[in-house]
Amino acid sequence: VQLQASGGGLVQAGGSLRLSCAASGRTFSTYAMGWFRRAPGKEREFVASMSGGNTYYADSVKGRFTISRDNAKTTVYLQMNSLKPEDTAVYYCAADRDNDYLRTTRTYAYDYWGRGTLVTVSS
């Protein structure tokens, strides 16, 4: 599976962006999909995921970000609203073959990673 994230850019605080992650492969619909981010000087952290038919969010983005997927287009999205400067990071999409919701927030659960797209939120 190959993943290609896009949609990053520069936005003012309070603005919105929608990230997309296009996946190759016929088994996309069976994979759990997640979004992670790495801010400057920090470790990669969980943002959101879809696993086992449910969605999960980090507390820091709950109510502002929405993850969704279109299996026909083999694409997962991350709608980001009310962006804050602390959301500035490189955002990565990832795929988990096992679709294990118990590990959905853990980086080690994911088998495939995209290259990331930079989101910069100015104050």
Report what the structure shows:
The structure is a single chain. By secondary structure, this protein is mainly beta. The protein has no helices and eleven strands. Strands 2, 4, 5, 6, 9, 10 and 11 form a seven-stranded mixed beta sheet that branches. It has a four-stranded antiparallel beta sheet with strand order 1-3-8-7, with no helix packed on it. A hairpin with a 5-residue loop joins strand 4 and strand 5. The model has no long low-confidence stretch (mean pLDDT 95).
Largest sheet: number of strands, sense, barrel closure? 7 strands, mixed
Helix/strand/pairing class, anyone? mainly beta
Calculate the mean pLDDT score and round it. Answer: 95
- For the CA atoms, what is the radius of gyration? 13 Å
**Outline, from the CA principal axes?**
globular
Topology, number of strands: 11
Low-confidence stretches: none
Helix content: under 10%
Q: Helical segment tally?
A: 0
